[in-house]
Amino acid sequence: MNPDDLSRWARDPRRSCGRRIAEPPESTVAPRNEHQRDRDRIVHSTAFRRLVYKTQVFINHEGDLFRTRLTHSLEVAQLARSMARALRLNEDLVEAIALAHDLGHTPFGHAGQDALQACMAAHGGFEHNLQSLRVVDLLEARYAAFDGLNLTFETREGILKHCSRANAERLLTAEPDGPALRFVRGGEPSLEAQLVNLADEMAYSAHDVDDGVRSGLLDLEQLQAVPLLARSLAAVQAEHPGLNARRSLHECLRRVLSAQVADLIACSAAAMAAADSAACSGAAIAPLEAGAEASPTVGVQPRMQTSAAMRDEALALKRFLFGELYRHPRVRHMTQLAYSVVTDLFAAYFSQPAQMTPDFAADADRPRAVADYIAGMTDRFALREHQRLTGQRLFSV
Ligand code: MG
Question: pLDDT tens for residues 291-319?
């Protein structure tokens, strides 16, 4: 989208708060804007390629058709871009945030993260959002002039979705006007960052239903307990009697996503229009650019939102997934094994750092180096390393 056509509430790539290490604008024949450059750096990163072998709910070896963190990130980017276009927000920024939002995830989804959190409890903790920022700020080693990817403030702000107060204060000592500021002073991130958060929830709720049914852990009958799914399935079956179960489910989920996207666009567009009117009648506008001078809690600022009814429907779907899928005995069994793998790996590298690659082995902050090393692993690599270091074979890969 031409920056001149962006909504007044969008982040304009020409007015970026910039990179930690200043870089000149591109001087090629077809220069990219700053957020397009961010997106391309993310796509070319090592951490991004690893997402293909990292899982969300199902362990990577369980089947070829389940979502991985890579396909999840692509689905989030697709949903968020469609909504950004409709709302005249910055599509490139949305895409960059969406593609990077899970870069800090450990192998084995939440089980891996829980295990690393426990291992790091006495060493400053472990948070996956913070780890995503650490990946793009520090751990990627691709550029001659700087560590990490040296992304713009706006992309980094979107990546740092959550952050504890203690970690925010620690980040601020190194970067006083950095993206951690809003966790201390309050305020919302950009509309683009808010949009990616909402797209993330929509994407995983829909694809976890799909993967849950594909795995045999859920069946269509159970989905009747979720009004949003039940109504959609009934409509599909009424319009297409005799359609087989798999196609019915895809059609149902497609319609659920479309309904959520339409609802979010309508409600958010209304919020943006209301803020426009308030601004036209003289209300103060909250500054769009973050930074030490801005006061993000004062003034008009719209929020990305869904209707209360859709929020309740989405919540019911999440509760269903939590109870019936994430806590399913088979999933729990796998996550317990995954937890053990990460815990064992942490102990093994902590006592024998030379088992890591030399740059990690040489790091003086050993607990953090071990956490970084493990967090960067794919599921398969973690399982192979676990077998090599402990002699145990907990999963077959
Ligand atoms: Mg996600």
Answer: 444 445 557 889 999 999 999 999 999 99
